[in-house]
Amino acid sequence: MALAFVDWNPNPEIFNLFGFSVRYYGLCFALAFLSGFQVVSYMFKKEGRPVEQADQLLLYAMVATVVGARVGHYVFYEFPLLQADPLRFLIQMITPPFSGLASHGAAIGLFTAFYIYTKKNKGISYLYVTDRIVIATALAGFFIRFGNLMNSEIIGKPTQLPWGFKFYRDFEFNMSGDPSMVLARHPSQLYEALSCLVIFVFLLWVWNKKKQHTKNGLLTGLFMIILFTLRFFYEFLKENQSAFEDQLSLNMGQILSIPAVVFGIIVLWYSNRNTTT
To answer: How far are the Cα atoms of 38, 46, 59, 149 from residue 9, in angstroms, in the given order?
Structure first.
């Protein structure tokens, strides 16, 4: 019996108007921020906080995500270029189009930005902010990974499972461009997108039980532990993003996920010890 694979060949460009290309990834990126803003605004309203604080928080999050993800990609995945040619490394990092973003870098950028945010908004604690923003981040992660799927990037390893995707627009691992040579692969982007959606629903449910009385750090700890534990194991199903990772026992995504999980455990431990909200 023939195996039924998913033929995946969408054009990543939605339309082109006067030389301006509108792509699915850009749309998904915009939806990630828009949905995140709606989620945070909803929570702030329910807890009696000014919506203006949510507006400011969105601005911090947007800048931190883009800068952190871009710098993180180059530091984590283009480090050999930094060693070989620092000037070219810097120029490529700041030159559009920004076709290289790292979620671990975005996480570092966000946690840094929220520290600055709480310093400028007295009376609101750091973990209070991160607890609300991780819910929005989980939903944003769904849109970002779906954008990766539409771009046919960050693909998985070959598989014989019936839900394997044949990425006909992948020219990184099928350099010949011959459609008959395309292998069915794990849709790792879809795995992560659906996981983010489940995490979003779960965290929102936990928050909804107590809202502003939720223990500080509880949602942040759960988010970091669940998301990056899943990320660690999903990496076994994904192709490496950089050649130097082929020489490592664990790839960069897995190496970076370990301290993220440890951080989540520490925050969750802190949350359980401190009941003050």
So the answer is: 32, 43, 35, 10
Contact (CB, 8 A) for 167 and 182: yes
Q: What is the H or E stretch that residue 6 is in? A: strand 6-8
Strand partners, 15: 22
Q: What is the pTM of this model?
A: 0.85
Q: What is the pLDDT along the chain (277 residues), one digit of tens a residue?
A: 455 799 999 999 988 877 778 889 889 989 998 999 899 999 999 998 888 888 888 888 888 888 888 887 777 777 677 777 778 777 777 776 556 677 777 888 888 888 888 888 878 899 999 999 999 999 999 999 999 999 998 899 999 999 999 999 988 888 777 888 899 999 999 999 999 999 999 999 999 999 888 999 999 999 999 999 999 999 999 998 877 788 889 998 899 899 999 999 999 999 998 754 4
The label of the residue with tokens 């995707």 reads 165
Cα dist. 164→39, 79, 112, 169, 182 in Å?
33, 32, 38, 15, 11
Task: Answer for the pair 57, 42: CB distance below 8 angstroms, yes or no.
Answer: no
Which sign, positive or negative, has the C-alpha torsion 213, 214, 215, 216? negative
- Structural domain spans, the chain: 6-239+249-273
User: 10 Å Cβ neighbour count for 150?
Assistant: 20
Report which secondary-structure segment, H or E, holds 14: strand 13-17
Q: What is the C-alpha to C-alpha distance for residues 174 and 116, in angstroms, rounded to an integer?
A: 45
Residue-wise burial string across 237-254, b where 16 or more C-beta atoms lie within 10 A, e elsewhere: ebbbbbeebeeeeebbbb
Neighbours of 259 (CB within 10 A): 12
Other CB atoms within 10 Å distance of the CB of residue 193: 20
